[in-house]
Structures are given as C-alpha cells and as structure tokens.
Description:
Helix content: over 70%
Number of strands: 0
Radius of gyration: 24 Å
Structural class: mainly alpha
Mean pLDDT: 85
Oligomer: single chain
Amino acid sequence: MEMETASTQDSRVDNNQSVSRVCPSQLPTVIEYIAGLDLILTVIIGITIVLSIATFVICGRAITRVLSHSPKRFKTKTIIVLLIYPVVAALAIMSILIPKAYFICDTVSHIYFMICAYVFYSLLIDYVGGEDCFIKSTDSETFNAKTPPCCCFLVCLKRTAVTKNRLLFTRLLILQLPIMQSLLFLGLNVVFVEDIENFNQIILYFVPFIVLSIVIGVWGLNIAVRMVASLHTELQIMAKYFALQAVLILCKVQPLVIMVIVTYITPRCDFPLVLQVQKNAVFQMCLCAEMLILCIWAFHLYKTPGKNRNFLAKTESN
C-alpha cells in the first residue's frame, strides 16, 4: 500500500509539472505585462530602446546627407527606402512594450517593406534616366528572366532585348507585392482581433499565398536589379538591394529560429511572461541590432561618393 501511495504521488507530481509547463496562449495587457516584468526582460527592453535610438540617429544623418548631395529626382525615393530601418526599429519598440500589438506592428513593417520594394525598383529606373533611355542604352541580351528564385523553372528562356512590355511585366511583378500583401495581412489582422485563440491555425491557410506573392515579387526585383547592376557597377546596386532584402529575410526567417531556441531554454512561461512574449522580446532586440548594422551600411552605400556622385549629377543634368 505504501509503495502504491508513493507511486501515485510521484505520478501526480509528474502530471503537475507537465501541466505547469503548458504555456498559456493569452497575451497580457500592458499593465499586467509591466507588473510581471523580470530583470532579464527589463534589460532586453532597455537594450532594444538604445539600439533603436542609435538607428534613428544614423538614419537621420543618412537622410541629411541625401538631401544635401543627391540630385533632386532621387531624394524622395532614396529617403523612403532608407526609412525602412528606423520604421522597423520604432515598431520593434512598440511591439516589445505592448504585447497584444505585436502582429499589428509586424504587419505595418511588412507592408512598408513591400512599398519600399516597389520604390526601389522605381529608383533603379530613375538611375538609368527612365525607361526610354534605358532601352536605348541596352543590347539584345540585357533582359534575363532566368533569375532566382524562378530560374530552375525557366531554363528554356533566353536573354532578350529590353522593351516597354518587358519592363511593364517586371514592374507588375513587383507592384503586386504591396497590393497582395496588404490584402492578405488585412484579412489576418481581422482574424487576429476577432479570434486570437485560433489565429495560429488559420494563418497556415494564408501562408501559401503570402509566400507565392513574395516569390513573384522577388523574381521581378532580381530581374530589374541584375539588368541595371550589370550596366552601372559604380552605383553598387547589388549591395543596396541586399541591404534592403536582408530586412525581409531577418523579419520572416529569424522568428522561427528564435522560437525554437526560446522554447527550449526558457525556465518558465507562466502568465504574464508567456512564451510568445519572451520570443517576441528576444526577436525585437536582435532585429534592432541588425537594423542598426544595416542602417550604417546603407548610410555608406547611399552617400554618393566619387564616381557615383559624378554619375548621378550627370543623370540629373540630362
């Protein structure tokens, strides 16, 4: 009887431990969140704010330099592209301070990136003096649709000449990004607000459409970037493109890695510091550090020194 009682008590302890390890999915309010903050999360929030402020300062310097030295026709579009870094950093602060706003903040940064992708394409066309000038300056093998991520499925396509229709095709591939992604994320936000409990299950039905739209848009960007980069190496087009594209990669791939790490190393996940709150805090801190690095890099890429400045001035005069 004593052995049976002891085994029964042990099983109850194991059950209690497994139950206590089940993390609640409900997100805390701001008051509950602040009241339950521990030292580690407080330090993470402080680091995130410092990194974000540094990003604001560097971006401010970059914008000031663009306003002072870049030709007038490039200023607005260049500033819109550069603002992606402080926008993501500002939304990271909001997301880490207001747990229930994390998906809304992610939506805003995601849609702003899609807008930047189309603006970046327009900036490339401005760099080469417009579509008509670009068509005249290219040869019969400039347009190449066999680029990542669709190159494996388009092995039969050959290089061709740049035409108005082909540039329109490329523009539409990129233009669908802000339109389709806005519609998809608008629907997801409605679900998030109305039924947060089932949100993680419903989002799986949206993922294929989100990924397909991104793949098509990235394909269009790769076509445009490779056309311009091959003709004007002094503009560092590939580096500028990667500095922008890295934002999407970090925002979408990194959370999956951090979720796995936080899930296995976190000592507890009781309310209000649920697993989603801890994962989001670590992710936003890492994201702000990366935005600072990318912002510094973009500052050097867009400061138009040497031949780059001479080229832009020549384009402006034309």
